[in-house]
Specification:
By secondary structure, the protein is α+β, with helices and mostly antiparallel strands. It has three helices and five strands; from the N terminus they run βαββαββα. It has a five-stranded mixed sheet with strand order 4-1-3-2-5.
């Protein structure tokens, strides 16, 4: 069953993006009607829809996100109209520009207040950092000393390994020379042995 209501909302509801929030809520809930600013700083809403849709819409417009703040909601039953959509009623471009700047200003104030809290917390961290800075400098100094010692040790190990590799290379070269000489000696001995065998008298 289609129902309709006229709602007057008081609080911080102008120049904070509240009408846009009401429009989004109405479109999401399937409610038709309009919303407009009033000269006394309140917002007037005409809304119509099925029972469940209208109830959900009324609940949502009571709890807008910051910086909007609803302090009072007055509801009256109304006769449904032929409206099939929901719209924002405005007095013109000047009002919309003022609304936009007002919303930005209100949001900036909230961020500035939040920044003050963080600034105080930052001072605490900065003080704590001073305490850790001395400890960090000591740690850095000890670390540099450790790396210097490690570099020195690795340098000594590298020199010893290089000397060992050079000795092994010399021994390998010597072994190759000895092996070549031994091979030549064996070949010469085999040659002499073959010649001696050939000189032996052959048996008939």
């Amino acid at each position: 069953m289609l129902r309709a209501k006229v709602i007057k909302v008081k609080g911080r509801v102008q120049r904070v993006g509240y009408r846009r929030y009401v429009l989004d809520a109405a479109q999401e809930e399937g409610v038709a009607g309009y919303v407009r600013n009033q000269p006394d700083g309140s917002v007037l809403i005409f809304a119509q829809g099925e029972g469940g849709q209208l109830s959900s819409f009324l609940e949502r417009i009571r709890s807008p996100p910051p910086p909007a703040l609803v302090k009072e909601v007055q509801e009256k039953r109304a006769r449904p109209s032929k409206s099939k959509a929901f719209r924002v009623m405005s007095k013109g471009l000047a009002e919309e520009i003022q609304e936009g700047f007002g919303a930005m200003q209100a949001e900036f104030k909230d961020y500035r207040s939040e920044f003050r809290d963080y600034r105080s917390e930052f001072r605490d961290y900065r003080s704590e950092f001073r305490d850790y800075r001395g400890e960090f400098e000591g740690f850095a100094s000890r670390t540099d000393g450790s790396f210097a010692t490690m570099n020195q040790k690795y340098g000594e190990i590298s020199e010893k390994l290089s000397a060992i590799m050079a000795q092994l290379a010399d021994q390998l070269q010597s072994m190759r020379a000895d092996a070549k000489e031994t091979s030549m000696t064996l070949n010469e001995s085999l040659k002499l042995l073959k010649e001696a065998v050939e000189r032996l008298p052959k048996q008939n």
